[in-house]
Every structure is written in structure tokens, then in C-alpha cells.
Automatic annotation (TrEMBL):
Protein name stated in the entry: Tripartite tricarboxylate transporter substrate binding protein
InterPro entries recorded: BUG, Bug_dom1
Species annotation: Acidovorax cavernicola
Protein family (similarity comment): Belongs to the UPF0065 (bug) family.
Spans annotated as Disordered: 30-56
Regions that span the bilayer: none
Length: 435
């Protein structure tokens, strides 16, 4: 034997090593001149054209290259600290007898263990870096999951499904909507925050999940602002204040007069999420009306109770109220935005009615886990913005009473931070006590 620490190998490996050493010794003594095996000690007989093509494909294909490369890295790392005359010679002998295409004639002394380890590490890092870069460039390679943290049938769900269908076409891969409702959107949002940051699990976020919720259940929410990168804006629209269609209230002042006459505790404000909950409290703070806030699981549920008379009024985004306003069961008396809504041009803003500090905007956007590669974020941003420019998107927003919110990646990051800060200010000014 020539320096092999055989006691470190299983029996079946020792036999193979001994056989290789015998063959290597024969080679050194000149006994393998008549060896007719695959060792590269002489010229190979000529191949037919078909055999040559097959041999070239076998030895030069990407599968052969990567397999050989990985084996090389593995052996270099495994035997880097072993004596050079055993570990490296074993590797070279294995290659020579395994595949003639990999034969090589050594003309210098093998490197020491430390140098070999560094070389292997550099090669491995290079392979991993090039593989990761290739995966990003080729994104997406498999279906993308778009998590909607609210129930099926909500306005958010409808918008997400229309967008997902378009992204499936533009990205040439399925974008699957997965509804994960619960805890005011926190359940689904927490799931995405914990997902791998590779662009294949995205959040259809909102002012509720990525702004107001950040100031509720602080410490136990399971995510924070830094958990996400905002990929793109989708929609934006001001909230509106809705009352029963048969109500005598035509303006906010009518509502306040009724409260003074009947007593404020007889009024109830419906809330379907943390955004509209804050809106109810902002109205109380701005007008002095101490109405009772009733929390529901969705804006549609609270609006249905406005229709039924269980609630005096409710805040909602126009999309959730669309079916009920179209059927004339509820109507809006004020828009909580800087300008009137194009779908309800006859409804004045709070500012027009003397309450300039009530501007409450609901919005949706696409979010990815923090750490998602910049190239992936840019790719998704481009795809979403292409849809926002489409006639289909413009028609949908007109029907839903909102508007598109086209943002670059940099603008989206600034928008998300500003909204989280703005809603935090609302909560503090309304003297809410987040738990």
C-alpha cells in the first residue's frame, strides 16, 4: 500500500483502494503497457461518426459537466486534509478509470491540503454564485403563490384574482391565489413574512395588513414593517361614509344634528377591518360624536347591518359597497379624500363639509418577504405596472370606485413607509389603545 489510511474506510472501499494501488504500482513499474482497458496510456481506436457524436454528447453535455464538477468539489473537501499521495492520487485514479474523457497527465506535485481546501471553497462559491444568478435571471421557473389575507368574495379578493390572471399570462407561469383570512389579515400576512425570500410567495397587502395592523398587537403580530419589501402598488381609493338609503341624513352635519338631538350613544359605527376601525375613531375625534364602534370581519358584513338598521353608519372602501349602492340599499354622504370620487361625483368630501383633517385612504399592493432579490422585485414590478396601464385595469377601477396606483420599486418603498407612519399618527391622535 502507498500511504492510504485504510482504517478510515469501510471494507468494500478498502478492496477498491487496494485494487487501484495495485494498478497504479503496475503502471509505475511499466506493467500496464499491455493493458487494454480504458486507461489513457495510448491512442484510442477511431470511432464511427455516430459513435463520435454520442461520445461528444456524453462527455461534453451539461449533465456530465455538472456531475463531474460536483464530484470534484466533494472529493476535494472530503480529503483536503489527507496526505497528498493517498487522497489526491485516489481521486485521480478513479477519474482515469471511470471515464477516458477525463484522463489527465499529472506533471507537478499535488498541492497541500490547505491550498486544496481553499481552491475547493473558491470553486464551490463560484458555482453557487453562478447558479443563483442564473435562477434569478430565469425567474419565474415555477408557479407563484399570491396570498390574499382576506376571505373569498371580498373586494380585495376580486382585485387580486383579476391581477393574478394577467400576471399568469405576462410571466408565463401560473400565479395562484391562496386565501388565508383571519386575525384582521394577520394570519396570511404572517405566513408570507416567514416564507422563503425567492419571489414565489407574495402577499396581496393593504392598508390594513401593512399599515394599521403594525400598530395593533405590537410584539405579538408576528411581523413588522421590516418584514417586507413593497414590490408594486395596485390600487388606491378614499374611504366613504355610508348610511341606509332611506336615512334622512344627506350630509355629515345632518348626522351630527341627529346625534345632538338623540344622544351620541344611540349611534353606532360599523368597521370591517382595522382601517375602518381607525376611521370610526377619527370621525369621533374630529366631530365630537361619541358613537359606539362595532367591529366585523369584513366591510361587507358591516354594510349589510347598515342596510338592516343594526348600525347607524359605516366606513368602507367603495369596492365593497358597490353592490349595495347599485341596488340603492345604502348611499354615501361623505368621501374621506382630497377630491370627490369619480364613481360618485355627487358626494362631497369631508373637507368640503368643514372637516379638513379626515382623509382616509385604502389601498392594495404586492409585497414580498424582505431579502427577495432586487432583480425579482423589478421583474414583478414591471409586470404589475404593465397591467395597470391596460384598458382592462382602467375599466375595473372605474367600476370599483378606485384608481390604479402605479409606482416604481423606489416609490413603492417610500409609499409603504409613509402609509405606516400616517396610520400610526391617526391611531395616536384618535387616542386608540392598540392591544
Amino acid at each position: 500500500m502507498i500511504g492510504h489510511p485504510l482504517q478510515e474506510f469501510p471494507i468494500r472501499h478498502r478492496v477498491a483502494i487496494q485494487r487501484l494501488d495495485q494498478q497504479r504500482m503496475q503502471h509505475r513499474l511499466g506493467f500496464n503497457r499491455t493493458h487494454q482497458g480504458p486507461r489513457c496510456s495510448g491512442p484510442r481506436p477511431p470511432l464511427t461518426a455516430q459513435a463520435a457524436a454520442t461520445e461528444k454528447e456524453r462527455t461534453q453535455g451539461p449533465e456530465t459537466f455538472w456531475f463531474t464538477y460536483i464530484v470534484y468539489i466533494f472529493v476535494m473537501l472530503k480529503f483536503a486534509t489527507k496526505p497528498h499521495n493517498s487522497a489526491l492520487e485516489l481521486f485521480n485514479s478513479d477519474l482515469e478509470f471511470a471515464d477516458p474523457a477525463l484522463c489527465m497527465r499529472r506533471t507537478s506535485r499535488p498541492l497541500g491540503g490547505a491550498v486544496k481546501l481553499r481552491s475547493a471553497a473558491v470553486l464551490l462559491a463560484s458555482a453557487l454564485a453562478s447558479t443563483g444568478s442564473w435562477a434569478v435571471d430565469a425567474y419565474p421557473l415555477r408557479p407563484i403563490t399570491l396570498v390574499v389575507p382576506f376571505a373569498i368574495g371580498s373586494g380585495t379578493d376580486l382585485l387580486a384574482r383579476v391581477l393574478a390572471a394577467d400576471l399568469s399570462r405576462s410571466l408565463a407561469t401560473p400565479v395562484v391565489v391562496d386565501n388565508k383570512p383571519g386575525a384582521n389579515g394577520a394570519v396570511g400576512t404572517r405566513l408570507v413574512a416567514a416564507a422563503q425570500a425567492d419571489g414565489y410567495t407574495l402577499l396581496f397587502g393593504s392598508a390594513t395588513t401593512n399599515a394599521t395592523n403594525l400598530h395593533f398587537h405590537v410584539g405579538s403580530l408576528g411581523y413588522d414593517e421590516a418584514s417586507f419589501v413593497m414590490v408594486a402598488g395596485v390600487s388606491s381609493g378614499s374611504l366613504a361614509l355610508y348610511v341606509p338609503h332611506a336615512s334622512p341624513w344627506k350630509t355629515v352635519h345632518d348626522l351630527l344634528e341627529s346625534a345632538r338631538r338623540e344622544g351620541p350613544r344611540n349611534l353606532t359605527c360599523g368597521s370591517g377591518n382595522s382601517v375602518t376601525q381607525v376611521a370610526c375613531e377619527v370621525l369621533k375625534s374630529a366631530t365630537g360624536v361619541d358613537a359606539v364602534t362595532a367591529n366585523y370581519k369584513s366591510n361587507l358584513q358591516s354594510l349589510n347591518d347598515v342596510v338592516g338598521g343594526q348600525l347607524s353608519y359605516a366606513f368602507s372602501d367603495p369596492a365593497a359597497a358597490l353592490a349595495l349602492t347599485s341596488s340603492q340599499r345604502i348611499r354615501a354622504i361623505a368621501i374621506a379624500g382630497p377630491a370627490r370620487n369619480a364613481s360618485m361625483p355627487g358626494v362631497p368630501t369631508f373637507k368640503e363639509q368643514g372637516f379638513p383633517n379626515i382623509e382616509l385612504r385604502a389601498w392594495n399592493g404586492i409585497f414580498a418577504p424582505s431579502g427577495t432579490p432586487k432583480e425579482v422585485v423589478e421583474r414583478l414590478n414591471t409586470a404589475v405596472n404593465q397591467w395597470l396601464d391596460s384598458p382592462e385595469a382602467n375599466r375595473l377601477f372605474r367600476q370599483m370606485g378606485g384608481e390604479g396606483n402605479k409606482l416604481t420599486v423606489a416609490e413603492a418603498a417610500a409609499f409603504a413607509h409613509a402609509e405606516a407612519t400616517r396610520w400610526g399618527d391617526y391611531i395616536r391622535k384618535a387616542n386608540l389603545n392598540p392591544k
